[in-house]
Prior knowledge:
Blueprint lengths: L11 H32 L9 H20 L5 H24 L4 H7 L8 H18 L2 H18 L5 H23 L4 H4 L7
Amino acid sequence: MGERQTFQPLTREDRITVVIYRAGIVLSALILSALAFLMTAASSVPGEPNSLPAADVLAYALYASTGMSVFFIHLYVGTFKKFLTGLYLASLGCLVVLLVIGKGSLSGALERSSYSLLLLLPLSGCLGFVTAKEAFCFRLVEGYLLAVIMPACLLLASGGMLTGRASSIALVMIAALLVLFTIRKVFMPIAYDIGDKTAYR
């Protein structure tokens, strides 16, 4: 569980790493909100193409913001950190595959085949791991919901069971939950993220 106390004086590195970690969470919430707005607007226009340059830019930014949280998260168990790092590297590999499929466009790859959405599972897994970790430590229930809903929506959409407006609504719901999660998380004292460093292993 997360510790709501200070065990040792915080170093400059402690503060910097927590700020970067939380900045990644904030940026992810903002980016997903922008993506939700963009995709909702696009789905309301008949004949609007799914391949959108702005969506591509936002998606790349989401990979970067998620990476900030992944590489600067504080975890007591080193095995979890290695797993999370490996999952993020796998998500980058999947990004390369998506770019090949879409001939340089991520959204183009998703337009070609709904099964391409499965290649986004590692990225959603990384963000879900972060939110679930915070949910476990600080009872942020929406973190658990995000960890389940994000991959579930990708699976449903890849199978054709979640399309068009329903997909947009799901993305809006995910963005709203992430914004709530972010507001509840980022204002916590920095020491809460560090905990007892003697417990790290």
